[in-house]
Design a protein that fits this description.
The chain folds into 3 domains: 104 residues, no CATH class; 131 residues, Jelly Rolls (Sandwich); 72 residues, Phage tail protein beta-alpha-beta fold (3-Layer(bab) Sandwich), CATH 3.55.50. Strand 4 and strand 5 form a beta hairpin. With 321 residues, it is of the alpha+beta class. The protein has 9 helices and 18 strands. Strands 1, 2, 3, 4, 5, 6, 7, 8, 9, 10, 11, 12 and 13 form a 13-stranded mixed β-sheet that branches. Strands 15-18-17 form a 3-stranded mixed β-sheet. The relative contact order is 0.10. Helix content is 26%, strand content 32%.
């Protein structure tokens, strides 16, 4: 899920998705339209959820010959198309010709535009940097490079990376996120930029963390994982192989919260993959294929007290069984 989706309630998103599916029916009547309009006007969360569902749904709408962008979306004067016209008076209509509309269609977050290295849904990338360091970029990620005579800096805008640094005594190697700076001390490590936290797994050497807000510092040794905000660094835990298993197109879960697994899986799947708050902290063990998210979801349903609810091919949520 995107950051926007994470900030909306699961209930609002599910309700909006149900309304969206019902209103696609060519025979929808005025009573249902009025009920939808009343629901939409009940709360700003409903409007934001509807906006999000529209964006996801439009990515999968079949391209048509007449026009593009708003012309395809609005269906001008057909009253049956209320979901694409007057009911959205408080929302922004996303045209495929606009920056935001094109971003939604491509599935790339807006903050990735202009980044030096980016990946899309299900896409990973491996590259050797100018200093000889090896960099792997996970799906739906964006990285900026700033290599100078004084320092080597990667800025992870969003997503995840795995780094194996080359030795250069004259130029320190840093990775920056929204929450702080990590300095590699001759190492192999993984970084994941989450909504409000950065997760760091160190597999060789050590990494020094410095938070952006409080300047708290800590050296994280090989075999350790920490999560940190801009203000504080959490207690170290055992490093998880999930931080590097994705380069082999699989996700190794070792006592991993279900929400974390689904968030990662969502980067390899088109559409919306959500979960009920009641299942977010369920512990997951096992290996899951990133190339076949449907199979991964089936494995989760077989192993945990959850059910996978598929409203459409592009809207899936994991609910309590």
């Amino acid at each position: 899920m995107t950051q926007t989706a994470h900030k909306l309630s699961h209930a609002s998103l599910q309700q909006a998705a149900h309304w969206y599916v019902q209103l696609q029916d060519e025979n929808v009547g005025p009573q249902l339209q009025r009920q939808w309009q009343a629901w939409l006007e009940q709360h700003s969360d409903h409007q934001a959820a509807w906006h999000y569902v529209q964006r996801v749904g439009q990515r999968f709408a079949p391209l048509q010959q007449e026009g593009s962008g708003a012309g395809r979306v609005l269906r001008e004067h057909d009253p049956r198309r209320i979901t694409r016209r007057t009911g959205l008076k408080s929302l922004v209509v996303l045209g495929a010709g606009s920056l935001l509309g094109w971003s939604a269609w491509r599935g790339a977050p807006l903050q990735g535009w202009g980044a030096d290295l980016t990946t899309g849904i299900g896409e990973t990338r491996e590259t050797r940097l100018a200093d000889g360091s090896q960099l792997w970029i996970g799906a739906q990620s964006a990285v900026d490079l700033d290599f100078t005579l004084q320092a080597r800096v990667l800025h992870l805008r969003f997503g995840q990376i795995l780094v194996e640094t080359a030795h250069d005594a004259r130029r320190p190697f840093y990775v920056d996120t929204n929450q702080g700076r990590m300095q590699a001390l001759g190492t192999r490590f993984a970084v994941c930029q989450q909504d409000e936290l950065t997760r760091l797994d160190v597999y060789a050497g050590a990494v020094e963390v410095c938070t952006a807000g409080s300047a708290e510092r800590r050296i994280v040794q090989a075999g350790q994982q920490v999560q940190f905000s801009a203000q504080a660094i959490g207690d170290p835990r055992l490093a998880q192989s999930a931080g590097e298993s994705w380069i082999h197109r699989r996700l190794n879960a070792e006592d991993m919260p279900l929400a974390q697994l689904l968030q990662t899986l969502g980067r390899y799947r088109h559409g919306h993959l959500g979960w009920h708050p009641a299942v977010a902290q369920l512990s997951v063990m096992g290996t899951f294929p990133l190339d076949d998210s449907d199979r991964a979801l089936a494995l989760l349903q077989a192993a945990l007290p959850v059910r996978v609810q598929q409203l459409t091919s592009w809207w899936v949520s994991v609910e309590p069984a």
